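Follow-up to my earlier ticket, as requested here are the two runs.
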Amino acid sequence: MASCLAEARDAVHAELSVVSLRRQLEALDLPIFSVRSAAGGRGEYLRRPDLGRRLSAGSRAAVESCEPTQGHPRALSGALSLVVVVADGLSAVAVERHAGPVLGSLLPLLEGWAVGPVVIAEQARVAIGDEIGEVLQAAATLLLIGERPGLSSPDSMGAYLTWAPRVGRSDAERNCISNIRPEGLGYSAAAGKIAGYLAQARRLQLTGVALKEEADKIDG
């Protein structure tokens, strides 16, 4: 029990290795850039969740300087733009281990989507994806984030999908897939669930509670 508690505590306080994560994501052949939240460091991030929900001034300016759906000409393809955000959250080790494999399994499943860029976000909470997606004029965002460590899973990753992202979106307006890791929801299964949600979001032009209810009807 003590060792499990120590692992969970260490996971919460660990800093994201952006260099290592970027190296993994480069295999996806998508534009990648890094941003930081308004939290000045890990301590402030843990004390002030509100700061983790928005970009720092410098990162906001960097995102604004990017072309919407950079590298994927939406006007030519007719595809909807999907921006992927990989955020450290409360377990940086989770996204370092699982984000690359999940995205590698997911990308071949995303018909009708122009994917990119991939944004690595440090000291970030879920809502930071709303600001990033809004600035990049994305049709939807997929945010992969380290979940709060439990005694049995210090490296669990969550996936959050938001249609028409913009600052002020509530948790009820997005869908979440939890416990992504080999010992929980495996990479292929997680990719299939994400792709399914995105297909329904595109059809209904929404995410959140209404999408979940519609998906449950279809599964039933």
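Run two:
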Amino acid sequence: MLRDIAEYPNSYGPLGPADERIETGRYTLCLGRGLTWNTVQRQRFALEETDDVLAEVRAHLRARGRTRTEWEIGSTAPDGLVDALLARGLARDREPYAVALVLTREPEPPPADITARRVETFEEYAEASAVQWHAFEMPHDEVEDVRANLPQMWEERVNLMHAAWLDRRIVSAGTAAPTEHGLLLYGGATLPEARGRGGYRGVLRARWVDAAARGTPALITQGGSMSRPILERLGFERVGEIHMLVDDFS
């Protein structure tokens, strides 16, 4: 179960008011706020059904005014699905491969000069979000789009935000989504000038404390080429893999 959640996190996380999840016997289609956040997960069909499934997914998206989606293909997907989709015009995503990672033991605490906890006010939430935007070099137009939605996102509070402070300033932040099996981790980021100071370790510890308090002591995430080595050094274990493709059919 932890592997399936790690490979297909959006199929298990809580839904916000603007989110939709279409469950079928052959796949799960997850749709988020806006028009561009879409992903196909948990593929459970025979390879010869690929054309039918691709047409069905595109029809769902077109009906909602959407013409682009990501396919996240995990280790339980049909053999050969990645090559079959590439042959049909899909392309590898900018970050085309990740591993599914799980932490089931308490992580080490951060250095003494790091304070970490869940954010408690909108001002903290906005500051933590800005850390993520800066660390991930998010394009300006995307930042402005998210910034405009921040008040509503804070009011909804579907996900959790944890942050780490150094010298009274947020230097590291990460989003988490509660599930009945543990916390799903997203968007862990540290300001470039504060890296190596233990900020991310503090955010990780704060997430663990929350997960344990909920009776689900496990942290579940995906690691790309940059984050995987860091997460594995912090104790995460590899349980699966994911290939990411993009279908732009506009």
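The only thing I checked on run two: Residues 128 and 173 are 5 Å apart (CA to CA). Let me know what else you need.
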